[in-house]
Amino acid sequence: MISNKAKAHIALLCVNLIYGANYLVAKGLMPNKIEASALVFLRISGAGALFLILKFFIKEKVERKDIPKLALCGFLGVAVNQFFSMNGLSLTSPVDAAIIITSLPIFTVIISYFLLKEPLTLQRILGISIGGIGAVLLIYLGDSGLGTSSLLGNIFVCINALSFAFYLVIVKSLMIKYQPVTVIVWTFLFGFISMFPFCIEKLLHTDFSSFEVSNWISLFYVVVGPTFLAYLLNMFALQYVKPTVSGSYIYLQPAVAMILVAIISYIVVDSQYKGDLTIAKLLCCILIFGGVYLISSTPIRWLKNKRS
Fold first, then answer.
1. With the C-alpha atoms ordered 29, 17, 52, 76, is the resulting torsion angle positive or negative?
2. What is the pLDDT of residues 173-201, one digit of tens each?
3. How far apart are CA 154 and CA 91, in angstroms?
4. CA-CA distance, 14 to 88, in Å (whole number)?
5. 142 or 22: whose pLDDT is higher?
6. How many CB atoms lie within 10 A of CB 80?
7. What are the φ and ψ backbone dihedral angles of 116, each rounded to 5 degrees?
8. Which pLDDT value is given to residue 248?
9. Taking residues 76-101, what's their average pLDDT?
10. Percent of the chain beyond pLDDT 90?
11. Do 55 and 181 touch, CB atoms closer than 8 A?
């Protein structure tokens, strides 16, 4: 009999495998088959509709005073997050996007310091500095001309991570007060309203008649997998493991993206992804991982002694 804790770890593994593969699957659709903004429209509206179906089984009202905060969460955590995530990925390498997103915990700690007045220890400052250097170097590597990397695309993905970090800090109090499905339905509603005027035109100009079966499968995966299913699995896992444990699984995403890119580059002779895997990017990845480890782990002994 598998314990609930073991099931939680399996769920988190699945979540990050889904996210890791999504960088390549979504990249395969954009921009030849569908524009990034049109894909954003389908992701938000499709997943939002699925969450709304779940909401019918949960009778819970929100207080009027929380509506503005839910609207802000929808704008940052859904509209801005998805818009810059997909538009960034359409411009840059799946490897770059997957590595940059691992800087999310660094942004979260910085924002928590300013908004929630959470203390910044010497170890966290060191972690922010190391991880920040890795992220900035990787973003500028997008201008190297190697593979499918792009400076603008990397900046967009960084904005995506920053907006979602703001969302995580702001939504924390709402998640404690209401059931997760209630919060996500409201955030997706406001996210849909925010992104509609910016994405509807691209959707209307999408030629769905040119889609092959593989394209429809990819589209279904992008809408249902990382946007709906992964969130449900993550909510299940957080019932049995700490958020820090959940966050540690984010390291799987660049690993999955790198492995898939390496396989495609090996199989396809003229793959567009040749040049996406470099020693410099791996070093940036190590710097970001090291920074996140420092800000999320318990204070190391020599730093304790230095403060005492």
1. negative
2. 888 888 888 999 999 999 999 999 999 99
3. 8
4. 24
5. 22
6. 21
7. -105, 0
8. 67
9. 92
10. 40
11. yes
* Residue found under tokens 């939002």: 48
What domain range includes position 42?
Answer: 4-307
**Dist CA 204 CA 48 (whole Å):** 19
Pick 80 or 242 by higher pLDDT: 80
Number of domains making up the chain = 1
Could you give the 3-state DSSP secondary structure of residue 57? coil
CA distance 17 to 253: 7
Q: Give the mean pLDDT of 227-246.
A: 79
Give the DSSP letter string of 138-169: HHHHTTS--TT--HHHHHHHHHHHHHHHHHHH
Mean pLDDT over residues 155-179, rounded? 90
Contact 16, 237 (CB under 8 A): no
Total Cβ atoms within 10 A of residue 306: 10
CA dist 296 and 299 (Å) reads 9
User: Measured on CA atoms in the order 77, 79, 85, 86, is the torsion positive or negative?
Assistant: positive
Residue 133, classified by CB atoms within 10 Å of its CB into exposed (0-12), middle (13-18) or buried (19+), is middle
User: What pLDDT does 308 receive?
Assistant: 43
- Contact residues for 114 (Cβ-Cβ < 8 A; gap 6+): none
Structure-block tokens of residue 215? 């394209």
Alpha helix segments (H runs only) across 75-206: 81-91, 94-100, 104-115, 122-141, 151-177, 180-204
Tell me, what's the pLDDT at 146? 65
- Res. 67 pLDDT band, cuts 50 70 90: very high
Q: Give the whole-angstrom CA distance, residue 159 versus residue 88.
A: 9
Would you state the structure tokens that stand for residue 295, as one six-digit string?
């800000």
Burial of 305 (0-12, 13-18, 19+ CB in 10 A): exposed
What integer best gives the mean pLDDT of the chain?
86
